[in-house]
Write a structure and sequence with these properties.
Blueprint: H1 17-26, H2 37-51, H3 60-81, H4 90-109
Helix pairs in contact: 2-3
Length: 113
């Protein structure tokens, strides 16, 4: 009769219980699937404008290149600010682009410029 001792997996600071569970279950850092914080958001918005990211006009290969480019720029900005970088998955860019589109459409509909 053997008993296995399990070492608890510590939750990283700033991670919710759900994010922690997701990270354990998928082995993907939950922060990799969302764009949040000023540096990540502003970089996304700058690159969206510069590279004219439009979801329905981009192929999966173009999204892969966009994600790699975003992550390279994010590493540079984070390093310059002394912050740790969590590389983003393509889903994070697609999700943020969708959020921005809805926000912009709502503002146009309400004449809220």
């Amino acid at each position: 009769n053997s008993t296995a001792a399990f070492t608890p997996i510590l939750r990283l600071p700033g991670m919710t219980c759900s994010q922690h569970f997701f990270s354990i279950a998928t082995r993907i850092d939950a922060h990799a699937i969302q764009i949040s914080g000023d540096i990540e958001f502003h970089l996304f918005m700058e690159m969206r404008m510069e590279f004219t990211w439009i979801s329905f006009k981009m192929t999966p290969k173009q999204w892969a290149v966009a994600t790699e480019t975003y992550n390279n720029h994010l590493k540079e900005k984070s390093h310059a600010s002394g912050l740790k970088t969590v590389e983003k998955k393509t889903q994070a860019l697609l999700q943020k682009l969708g959020e921005i589109k809805v926000t912009m459409m709502n503002r146009v509909a309400k004449n809220d410029f």
